[in-house]
Amino acid sequence: MSLPLSGLKVLDLTRALSGPFSTMILADLGAEVIKVEPMPAGDMVRQWGPFDEDISVYYLSANRNKKGIGIDFRSAEGLALIKEMALKSDIVVENFKVGTMENMGLGYDELSREKPGIIMASISGFGSKGPAKDWAGFDQIAQGYSGFMSLTGTDESGPTRVGTAIGDLTAGMWIVIGILAAVVEHKNSGRGQHVETSLLASLMGLLSVQGQRYLSVQEVPQPCGNVHPVIAPYGTFETADGPLNLAPATHAMWGKLCSILGLEALASDPRFLTNADRMQNRHALKELLEASLKRRSRMEWTPLMIENGIPAGPINTLDDVFSDPQVLACKLVQTVEHPVLGELKQVGLPLSMTHMEDGSSVRTAPPLFGQHTSAVFADYGFAPAEIERLLGQKVIHQAG
């Protein structure tokens, strides 16, 4: 089976989450990704819990479909090996602090002098220029700095981080978009280039209408919790067994909602005649709607609302999600064999492509530290005796 990015060789010098997530996407799509980890212990994320049989679940979440090797980053010979591999690769991806690659002799300018067609992709915390360029790239710091946290939460909670490392993850996705654009450019011109993003830039790229509100009319949006900032009723409402999202976004939907809930009188109530009226009286409206919604469960209301043209859905916990028939039907979870853990379930690549077989994105498990070192160096043209010498002198590490 041919995958879309088959034939591309990626040297992955990333660690933690943003970079590994980006290279996992490339690997899912068929690129050959060589994950280079520093000796003696590998990617820092291997030490982050929770753990499954002493293997980091955090690490498992972002490193499948890669070949893993270990190299001594602190030795001149180790860095020379990395440079040699970089020059034999199509793409190099890194997320070190700004200036680290240059200090190791692996900066884009140096590599591109020897290989003009090389593509380098870099993820930083705050960008490669400006007063914050040397700040470490931690997701929650970037969520706060970018304004993202100021939009999330309620008056009572104050600013709240998003429940996943959204700055890391979106930076990974943005850099993949840039890498693929650079690959297309390379096919047309033969030129390589340096692609950069940051956690700050990635989150600002998601500000959407909230950012435009400020840029256009100088409104500073405040956190509005689970209610829509300009439409009512629209948000989260309690039912007999937990919260339900409802989105009756039009006046016609509002009328249908009143009918479904047996609250027809609300449609002509002066407090709720227009969306502006409902926004002004949204708290009283929420109490009236919830008094009726609490007569049934989330999954009793959901199909009833949808049948009547009102978008609705339960707020699931993850045990709900992973047993949900829609999730199962779409095969969003796939299974791969891990050398230690046995069957390993993973959330697969959330894309479907005509010429990519369903379920093909999860092919090999996240590698053990140094699992493929000898095989990868052989593939890069190193003689068996040279590989044995490097292993014996602890310049490189092979698992087991």
From TrEMBL:
- Please provide an example of a Pfam family that matches this protein in its UniProt record: CoA_transf_3
Q: Does the keyword Transferase apply?
A: yes
Molecular function, one GO term: CoA-transferase activity
Keyword annotations: Transferase
InterPro entries from the UniProt entry: CoA-transferase_III_domain (IPR050483), CoA-Trfase_fam_III (IPR003673), CoA-Trfase_III_dom3_sf (IPR044855), CoA-Trfase_III_dom_1_sf (IPR023606)
Keyword rRNA processing on this protein? no
Taxonomic superkingdom: Bacteria
Protein name per the record: Crotonobetainyl-CoA:carnitine CoA-transferase CaiB
Organism of provenance: Pollutimonas bauzanensis
